[in-house]
Known about the structure:
By secondary structure, this protein is mostly helical. The chain has one helix at residues 24-128. It has one domain. The N and C termini lie far apart (129 Å).
Amino acid sequence: MVSFDDLQFNPKEEKLPNELIMSSKEYKILNSKLNYLLQIKSDTGGNNYYKDLHGKVYFYSGVITRLVEFNTEYTKQFEDKSEKDAKVFEKLEEFVSGIKETLSKVYLSNQSHLLRISLINGFEHRVKH
């Protein structure tokens, strides 16, 4: 039962007019009705709370399931793409190594040509002096 003390209300301290202060009989009737309404509210509120909670759990479990499915699909696509990329990089490495070989051959042939020219120039220079 709700009392004035529970509400932290003292009618004498509030200086209410006498016509606003109810009799103890009216207070008990009103208090019992209020308690009844609060009881009904708490009962239905409790049921609604568990229904809402169950609905939220169902919703979140569905979301998590869908996220796991999406992640699985995405990972599969990513793995397939990774394999294709690996093949492309393999071919690219072969191409680059072929270019390196060609460039080194050209460099060596130019180097040997330059070496021959420098030897000839060195020989000519020695002959002249």
